[in-house]
Amino acid sequence: MELEPIDPETALELYIAEKETAVSDATVYSHKSRLGFFVEWCEERDIENLNELTGRRLQEFRLWRRNVGDLTKVSEKTQMDTVRVFVKWLESVDAVEQDLHLKVRSPDVTPRENSRDVMLDVEDAEKVLAYLERYDYASIRHVTATILWHTMIRMGAARSLDVEDYDPEEQSLRLRHRPETDTPLKNKQRGERIIALSSEVCLVLDDWLREQRPAQTDEYGRRPLLTTNYGRVHTGTIRHYCYQVTRPCEYGQECPHDRSPDDCEATDDSDASRCPSSLSPHPFRRGAITHYLHSDVPETAVSDRANVTTDVIDQHYDQRSQKEKMEQRRQYLDKL
């Protein structure tokens, strides 16, 4: 087989163009971001033709990426697994030797190591929501935090909601996969479902819609449930809201890091993520799932509501100890 020369930048562009037709926007973004480091490494090594790639050079990239990025084992595995997929694609376009992807090495990770355990504890969640209810009631931040915690949905799903998806009579939210108007669900049609809401959550949503929500439509003529004066919120905006409201000093707690608000850079809302205690949206989801499981809600019910399999719940979300699980099973068995 005769290899056809191709430079790293062109290869990445062609790879991403093909990925865009087969996977979600979030996956495309992740691959582009990770492989951007590979292109950077090629530039530093003056590799202008990927025909030159060998197993040894791929191992050199792995060590460079680990050191430059100060990667954890899990992050290193994610990085190298993406490179392996990319190299396999390069084989399909005659850019590298066949079976080179088999030489891409990544660390072995146990299920426990692959499970991230950062979450928003129920006590902190209650403090955050209580503070918002008192001092920032029915604001975009209050509504966003309330939806994320009480529904366990992903931030992309929260962003996808329209005003019409909220049914105050049925006290529910309907999630729909609408990729043609820029609001896909991670699991596509399988992610579509109706989520029941409590009266307390509905009261916040009702007041948001009546008093606070800007009268905005998006470029497709839809009315986003979560919107600012500039239109439907972006996932990055939702992330910023979560960082902001989970700073301990933001919801009336003492700083656990011995910082003074006068000289702490994280007190600026735009730099809220610099607070070591601030959390992104996913810990809301993980904490809420764990809270429901602790509250004896059946795992199948949590699975359906959160749109995640029970296996994934066990590996990535369920933070109960083995003893706690045993005691909960005992309570059920003692009733028989």
Uncertain runs: none
Mean pLDDT reading:
87
The fraction of residues assigned to DSSP E strands is under 5%
Domain module count: 2
Q: Give the second-level CATH assignment, the architecture of the largest domain.
A: Orthogonal Bundle
Rg from alpha-carbon coordinates: 23 Å
Q: Major β-sheet, in short? A: 3 strands, antiparallel
Number of helices in the DSSP assignment:
13
- The CATH homologous superfamily name of the largest domain equals Intergrase catalytic core
List the strand order in the largest sheet.
1-2-3
What is the approximate shape? globular
How far apart are the first and last residues' alpha carbons, in Å?
69 Å
The name CATH uses for the topology of the largest domain is hpI Integrase, Chain A
Global structural class: mainly alpha
Kindly state the number of beta strands: 5
CATH class of the largest domain: Mainly Alpha
Protein model, in words:
The protein has about 325 residues and is mostly helical. It has two domains: about 10-105, DNA polymerase, domain 1, CATH 1.10.150.130; about 120-260 and about 265-285, Intergrase catalytic core (hpI Integrase, Chain A). The chain contains 13 helices and five strands. The strands form two sheets. Strands 1-2-3 form a three-stranded antiparallel β-sheet, with no helix packed on it. Strand 1 (about 165) and strand 2 form a beta hairpin. Helix 1 runs antiparallel to helix 2 (about 25-45), helix 2 (about 25-45) crosses helix 4 (about 75-90) and helix 5 (about 120-135) packs antiparallel against helix 6. The longest helix has 20 residues, at about 25-45. The termini are far apart. GO terms for molecular function: DNA binding. It comes from Halobacterium bonnevillei. This is Tyrosine-type recombinase/integrase.
